[in-house]
Amino acid sequence: MSVPEATPAMDGVDPVHFRKTVSCFATGIAVVTCSDDNGDSPHGMTVNSFTSISLSPPSILVSLKAGRMHRLISTGGWFGVSVLTHAQQQHSAYFAGSRGEESPAFVFRHRVPTLRDCLAWFECEVTSRIQVHDHTLFVAQVMNCDFVSGKPLLFYSSQYFSPGADS
Ligand SMILES: Cc1cc2nc3c(=O)[nH]c(=O)nc-3n(C[C@H](O)[C@H](O)[C@H](O)COP(=O)(O)OP(=O)(O)OC[C@H]3O[C@@H](n4cnc5c(N)ncnc54)[C@H](O)[C@@H]3O)c2cc1C
């Protein structure tokens, strides 16, 4: 009979250790988008907290900390989600705050902008907000979505990967 490995205590987990441990869960990268206060120019924010919740009705959530996107979605009630392709890694840096290049191009849908040439996009209406510590879970119903064939951008152990690449 094998002896179980010692597990750390369930309380008092070091935040740096937690961050490294949770980064073992590979995700894709998405950009949450909405229109600014005037309803014309688009704003985007990189996330990897995007997840699907239910099929009926089709629902998703994103977990957002306080900031401009949080405020805009709280006010407007709608947002877009664009799933990035492996060729759009620079978009992830741009919408995480680097803003170091010319803005990526947007496509205006029914209610919100999404990113041009993304792998998949969703147009979402917020149905509930759940405050959890310093983040808010925005639960939303998907009102429109579509996808193309292609390869996603992957995020694992705090690094970007392309499917099929060795590193
Ligand atoms: C791979 C990756 C995945 C990410 N996933 C997520 C995710 O799932 N969820 C998430 O929330 N972020 C995530 N981020 C970080 C996020 O993309 C950046 O923080 C982005 O700049 C936030 O955009 P914003 O317009 O909302 O923030 P801005 O308004 O531009 O503010 C920038 C930052 O300032 C701080 N700030 C601004 N206003 C306030 C305020 N009133 N109170 C407290 N702090 C404030 C916040 O830290 C905020 O993120 C991710 C980043 C990367 C690279």
From TrEMBL:
GO terms for biological process: pyrimidine nucleobase catabolic process. Residues 22-162 form the Flavin reductase like domain. The keyword Oxidoreductase applies. One of its GO terms (molecular function) is riboflavin reductase (NADPH) activity. The keyword Oxidoreductase applies. SUPFAM superfamilies: FMN-binding split barrel. Keywords: Oxidoreductase. This is Flavin reductase. It comes from Oleomonas cavernae.
